[in-house]
Write a structure and sequence with these properties.
Blueprint (H helix, E strand, L loop, with lengths): L11 E5 L2 E2 L5 E5 L2 E5 L7 E10 L2 E11 L25 H18 L6 E2 L3 E2 L7 E9 L2 E5 L19 H17 L5 E9 L2 E7 L6 H14 L1 E7 L7 E5 L5 E3 L2 E3 L11 H13 L8 E4 L7 H5 L4 E5 L2 H13 L6 E5 L17 E4 L7 H8 L5 E6 L2 H13 L3 E9 L8 E7 L1
Parallel strand pairs: 4-6, 7-22, 8-22, 12-13, 17-18, 17-20, 18-19, 20-21
Antiparallel strand pairs: 1-5, 2-3, 3-4, 5-6, 9-10, 9-11, 11-12, 13-14, 15-16, 21-23, 22-23
Helix pairs in contact: 1-8, 2-3, 7-8
């Protein structure tokens, strides 16, 4: 059978990396077309293989580093380069920070928006990630557990990880042994882990449910490893089936204890969440009357905001909203906190529905909130607070707000994904 030719022809070329792009890959040029080279630094001269087309050019697979650029450092993790969990450990601290701090101004500039006041970036240290989605694959007699390899579905069997909390990393080897013993008929799956305040929460994702023997092994594992809840689902599109719950996993938002849904989204680190919440509260006017918290999740901003003013929390995910509402009722906040289930991407709140609030906070997924930003721009809301995990989609939404008459007062970058191409932010807009 004849092999299909690569888009880049598999040609090997020598290139000099000129800069880093928004995804953290080096950008070089070949015959006038960009070549995106992972694991490279500005000034690197490299031999690469041209592969799949990307962004009007090619993805370049690095083959040999011929001459180092000035911004390189020795990666601190032995898995770096293979593991897809980190992309930028090869940069020294100054180069890494300079690149991270350029992402938001450059994204705004591409949208024709003046950056306004850029506050000093907050850098969350390694070993703080409390939530991780890992994959496992059975390889002969051993289960490999870790992040996916770079550009591959294969799994890096983690012997160390500089990202996870020490307690969460310490859970990996017992979990690996558990999967190896009890999931013999499951060659692959995923594990979503949360290091909650009172123990670990674990969601297993496998094509078939665990059998009775596996479930019995899980109970013993939970008692030994302080796993307070364990659930199973075929994938994250269906409601998980509870396997056991010794007690509800607990996170505290503001002063309110919340039980997040199995596998549900929460901020990846406690320290990063605290930085984002502090910036959000700083963006509020002196005496807000009512706040709309859009894309509210299970309440990480809702409950700190509720100490300042009544809040209407709007969220499309039923499980997350149920967790938020249950926490509000338990804490006596039903009334000061109202909830509404609504898909804000397809059905954004209209200006007339925003007439009762003077502050809107929106924290959308990575694709941003284009339609909701348009509706806010047509409203009379006086203060808008944007939280984003994507400088690109944030800049687009910021342009829509500014075209509607808002000014961008300031932006607070928060880097809670060390050595990754992700950057979070809080921005304050006002009329």
């Amino acid at each position: 059978m004849r092999r299909r030719a690569r888009k880049g022809g598999g040609r090997q070329v020598e290139l000099t990396v000129e800069s880093l792009g928004a995804r953290g890959d080096g950008i070089a040029f070949h015959e006038g077309r960009p070549v995106f080279v992972p694991l490279s630094a500005a000034g690197d001269r490299m031999r690469v293989r041209l592969e799949a087309e990307r962004g009007g050019g090619f993805r370049g697979e690095p083959l040999e580093l011929l001459e180092e650029g000035k911004g390189r450092a020795d990666p601190p993790c032995p898995h770096f380069g293979t593991c897809g969990g980190c992309q930028l450990q090869h940069l020294d601290a100054a180069s890494y920070r300079a690149w991270k701090e350029s992402l938001i101004p450059e994204a705004l500039q591409r949208q024709g928006v003046q950056a306004g006041v850029m506050r000093p970036a907050i850098y969350i240290p390694p070993a703080t990630r409390r939530r991780a989605a890992l994959a496992f694959r059975r390889q002969k007699d051993r289960v490999h557990l870790g992040f996916h390899q770079r550009q591959s579905s294969a799994v890096v069997d983690l012997s160390t990880c500089l990202l996870l909390t020490p307690e969460l990393f310490a859970l990996l080897e017992p979990l690996r042994q558990l999967l190896q013993r009890s999931m013999t008929s499951h060659p692959l799956g995923d594990a979503v882990l949360l290091h909650a305040e009172n123990g670990f929460d674990l969601l297993l994702l496998t094509p078939e449910p665990p059998d009775l023997a596996a479930r019995e092994a899980f109970v013993q594992f939970a008692a030994e490893q302080n796993v307070v809840r364990m659930s199973w689902a075929a994938d994250q599109k269906v409601a998980p089936e509870p396997l056991f719950e010794r007690e509800p996993p607990r996170l505290t938002f503001g002063e309110v204890p919340v039980t997040p849904p199995p596998g549900g989204f929460v901020q990846p680190s406690e320290e990063g969440e605290a930085a984002l919440v502090a910036a959000v509260l700083d963006a509020l006017p002196e005496e807000p009357k009512r706040i709309a918290d859009l894309f509210a999740g299970c309440g990480s901003f809702t409950f700190p905001l509720s100490a300042r003013a009544p809040v209407t929390a709007v969220e499309g995910d039923a499980a997350a909203l149920a967790s938020l509402w249950a926490a509000a009722r338990r804490s006596g906040l039903a009334g000061p906190v109202l909830v509404e289930q609504r898909d804000l991407v397809r059905q954004p709140l209209r200006p007339e529905e925003l007439a009762a609030v003077d502050v809107v906070l929106f924290d959308p997924p990575r694709q941003g909130a284009r339609e909701q930003a348009r509706e806010i721009a047509d409203s009379d809301v006086l203060r808008v607070v944007a939280v984003s995990c994507s400088p690109g989609s944030f800049a687009r939404d910021a342009r829509l707000l500014i075209e509607g008459g808002y000014r961008l007062d300031w932006v607070q970058p928060v880097d809670q994904f060390p050595w990754a191409a992700h950057l979070e932010l809080v921005a304050c807009f006002s009329r």
